[in-house]
């Protein structure tokens, strides 16, 4: 079983949100880590390989610092890595990121492609499903369990209100993995040493430039919400208060 895991480097959860005068996110002067949902996707890929043998390949895009994500994955047991290396990859939207990944792996065939459910920085949850569409593969989201079957795979999807859905799928397929699907492993000392000798292919922006177009999604401005507090006292009889309250909930707050 050959599995590709798409991973992303994101600012640490406790990293301060720094904005410039134009409302753009200053991302240079912060610490970075592996996107948590992607860590669970990697762990599931490693477990599937341990059960069924094969190969786990990890891929990421971004500047040179993003290579740390791949090194950690290799130290945990991934077999090789692909790095789309350029600062400009950071500015791509989910559609163009998926296009870049598809172009980078055009000469390879994978049985399964995993992504985390969403990224911790933007949380769009789009890259995986767009990649599936670009590759013409079936996909399923919010995956909590994967079992190999004679005809493909059977997956367990997490729905709302404690419900789950079981789906039989053919392979190859793309799956977006939910956090908590498994327990994450730590890299061993021998794994860290072995990671230094594992293949890491670098892909320049020029190699996938023809597949990338204009961003279809753009963030105009970021801002920190101002904390405000407003208390309104409603007077009248019990019936009048109830009527005014319902009116505010329906017409002002729009929760009814």
Describe this structure in words.
- The protein is an alpha/beta fold and 256 residues long.
- The protein has one domain (2-211): 3-Layer(aba) Sandwich (Rossmann fold), CATH 3.40.50.620.
- Helices cover 28% and strands 24% of the residues.
- The protein contains seven helices and eleven strands.
- The strands form two sheets. A nine-stranded mixed beta sheet has the order 9-8-7-10-6-1-4-5-11, sandwiched between helices.
- A hairpin with a 5-residue loop joins strand 8 and strand 9.
- Helix 2 (67-76) crosses helix 5 (189-195) and helix 3 (94-104) crosses helix 4.
- The longest helix has 17 residues, at 36-52.
- The radius of gyration is 22 Å and the shape is globular.
- The protein starts with a strand and ends in a 5-residue tail after the last helix.
